[in-house]
Amino acid sequence: MSHTADDPLAPALPGTLPAELRAELVAFRRDLHMHPELGNQEFRTTAALKDRLERAGLRPRVLATGTGLVCDIGTVDGTPGSAAGERLALRADIDALPIPDTKTVDYASTVPGRAHACGHDVHTTVVLGAGLVLAELARQGRLPRPVRLLFQPAEEVLPGGAAEAVECGVLDGVGQILAVHCDPRVDAGRIGLRTGPITSACDRLEVTLEGPGGHTARPHLTTDMVTAAARVAVDVPALIARRVDARAGLAVTWGRLESGHACNVIPQRAALSGTVRCLDLHAWRQAPDLVHAAIDEVATLHGAKSQIDYVRGVPPVVNEVDSVQLLHDAMAARRGTVSVEDTEQSLGGEDFSWYLEHVPGAMARLGVRPPGELSSLDLHRGDFDVDEHAITVGVELFTAAALL
C-alpha cells in the first residue's frame, strides 16, 4: 500500500483514502453484494475476508462456528513498538437476507432469493478497509491502541450470531467495541449518533390455540376458535400496553393469523405469529412473563387452550456515553462537526446489543442516501442500495476512532 503526504495513514487525521484503496473497497463490496450468503452459511464471504487480510500480513482466525472471523492488529504485551491497553473492537455483520434482489445494476445478487438488503456488505467492507489502514499504521509503530476486527455471522438469525461469538471468546481482552449500521435516511458523508438506546429489543412469538371444534350453527357448544384467535390478536397488544409504562414502548405486533378451512366448520386450531418489540431494557426483561399472562388470560376467557413459544431475540442496543463521544470526535476530526447529526431510537433489533452486555461500546448510523435525494430506499427491500461514498466515510470514522 502506497502513502502520500495527504493520506489518512499520515499522523494528521483529516484527509481522504487513496483512490486505489477506495476503488478496491468498492469492488470488494460489489463482489459481496453479488454473492450474498445467509446466516451461518457465509463460507465464501469468510474466505474472501481471510484471503485479503492475510495478503495484508495479518493473521485472521475463523470462528469456531465455521464462518466469521476475528483479526488482531497490534499487541498488548507492552514491548517496544507495540500498542498497549485493552483492544478496541470494530464489528461488522456479514450475512444477507432471504429475499430477492430486484435492482437492475451490474452488481445485483447472482443468488436467487438472496440479497444484501440491509447493508451488511457495506459494514463488512468498512471494517476490512479500516483494518487495512490500521495494519499499515501498526507496521510503522503509529497505532496507539491495539484493535480487533470482528466479522460476525448470522446477525439476521434470532437470537443473533453475536451471542455465540461472545461464547467463542471474541471479547477476550476487548475494552470497547464500535459498529456502524447503514441508514438510508441519512446522507452519505454523515453519521447519526445517540447516547442510550438506539435500537429496540426484538423477540419472536408463536402462539397455538386449541379447542374441540364443531359446527358453525352451534358455536355455543364448543370453542369458537376464530373468535378466540381474533380476540388474542386484538386484546393482547392492548392489555400489554396497559401493564407497562408507556415510555417502555413494549409492543406486540402480529404478522400471521391462520385458522380453519371451511366456511361452516369451527376449526380445532388457530395459529398466530408475531414480534415483541421494546424500547426499554428493564421492560424487555419482564416481557415474556407479561406476554404469557396476557395470552393465557384472553384464551381462557374464550375457552381455548394456548401453547406459547416465546423466542428470545435481542435486547436494545444501549450506546455508552464515552463511546458515543469517541465516535463524535472521530467524525469531527475527519469531516467536521457538521457531519454528525442526532438520530432517533429505532424499533428495529440488532444483535450488537449482546456485546454491550459485556463491554462498553456504541453503534453509529452510517449515512448511505445520495445527497440531494428526497426519497430513500428502506432497509430489507429488494431494491435497497447505497451511495458507495459511505464506505470511505465509514473507514475514516473507524480509523480516526482508533487513533484518538
Give a brief description.
The protein folds into two domains: 19-199 and 316-403, Zn peptidases (Aminopeptidase, 3-Layer(aba) Sandwich), CATH 3.40.630.10; 201-314, Alpha-Beta Plaits, CATH 3.30.70. The protein has helices at 19-34, 43-55, 120-139, 161-167, 225-241, 281-301, 321-335, 353-356, 389-403, and strands at 61-62, 69-73, 87-93, 147-152, 174-187, 191-193, 196-197, 201-210, 214-215, 251-259, 265-266, 269-278, 305-314, 318-319, 340-342, 361-369.
Percent helix:
25-40%
Quick one: CATH class of the largest domain?
Alpha Beta
- The CATH superfamily name of the largest domain is Zn peptidases
| Helix and strand pattern | HHEEEHEHEEEEEHEEEHEEHEHEH
- % residues in beta strands: 15-25%
Number of domains: 2
The CATH topology annotation of the largest domain reads as Aminopeptidase
The CATH architecture of the largest domain can be given as 3-Layer(aba) Sandwich
Strands side by side in the biggest sheet? 1-2-4-3-5-16-6-15
Shape: elongated
- Contiguous uncertain segments of 5+ residues: 1-12
- Average of pLDDT: 93
Compute the number of strand runs. Answer: 16
Number of helices: 9
- Write down the Rg: 24 Å
Structural class: alpha/beta
State the distance separating the first and last CA atoms: 23 Å
Core attributes:
32% helix, single chain, Alpha-Beta Plaits, 2 domains, four-stranded antiparallel beta sheet, Aminopeptidase, alpha/beta, 24% strand, 404 residues
